Amino acid sequence: MSSVPTITLNDQVTIPQLGFGVWQVGNDEVVPAVAKALEVGYRHIDTAAAYQNEAGVGRAIRESGVARDDLFVTTKLWNSDHAAADARRAIERSLENLGLDHVDLYLIHWPAVKKYGDLYIEAWEAMHQFQAEGLTRSIGVSNFNVEHLDALTGTVPTVNQIEMHPTFTQASLRATLSERGIHPEAWSPLGQAKDLQNPVIAEIAKSLGKSPAQVIIRWHLQIGNIVIPKSVTPERIAENFDVFDFDLDPTQIDRINALDAGNRIGGDPATATF
């Protein structure tokens, strides 16, 4: 079993750099998917209340036999629960669904400013209390632009989970995060499969005898991103984890970096209306 590198966050919690994402995976389908991920060696599972599959994730964890201390579990606070009292009910509900007494990382899923204004600031204040009570080991954010980070008080987030892939590298935001000690984590790291078709990625993959997905995941790891690919296909789950026996050279990294074209797939945090 390959050893996944870990990253020490700004609160000294360590996180496996490669994790397994479960967005858009149903509550029943997620059980065998997470089971397979844990079987091949993943120890970092990323879910969210909005995915409506926390119960399935929890079941897979329990049935896996993997010790809780060997796992890193992330879940997220949904936009409609930003008020402090709602946030508390939300984390307690997530923990109940997961069957856990704590998560390792709790994220504000979106700032949701178009619908809820600056209520995410109240949510961030509540998250400090959850951490103090041991309901989560670490606290962070997701889909935050610089202006949203600027509005936060207290502890600096450990992580900002954002859309990142070869044609949407978020280089400027990543640089800002680095300056602030916030670690970038990539969702849709393969560009929802669109970037897999890129001829540069295909050429590099062929030269290395690897798949395009493996090349992109390796690129994320080498530029320092935490990365959480998703699949429900057992072969691809295993393939996406098998990325520790090769390196991209600097020229290959540069060629992939140069693919950035601003190809955002998901919503813009500044304008999203959900």
Short description:
This protein is of the alpha/beta class. Helices cover 39% and strands 15% of the residues.
List keywords for this structure.
alpha/beta; TIM Barrel; eight-stranded parallel beta sheet; two-stranded antiparallel sheet
For CATH, the homologous superfamily is named as NADP-dependent oxidoreductase domain
Relative strand content: 15-25%
Rg, rounded, reads 18 Å
Compressed to H and E, one letter per element, the order equals EEEHEHEHEHHEHEHEHHEHH
Structural class: alpha/beta
Biggest pleated-sheet summary: 8 strands, parallel
* Overall mean pLDDT: 97
Amino- and carboxy-terminal Cα gap: 41 Å
| Unreliable spans | none
How many individual helices?
11
Overall body shape:
globular
CATH hierarchy, class: Alpha Beta
The residue fraction in helices comes out at 25-40%
Q: State the CATH architecture.
A: Alpha-Beta Barrel
Instruction: Please provide the count of β strands.
Output: 10
What CATH calls the topology is TIM Barrel
- Output the strand order for the largest sheet: 3-4-5-6-7-8-9-10
Give the count of structural domains: 1
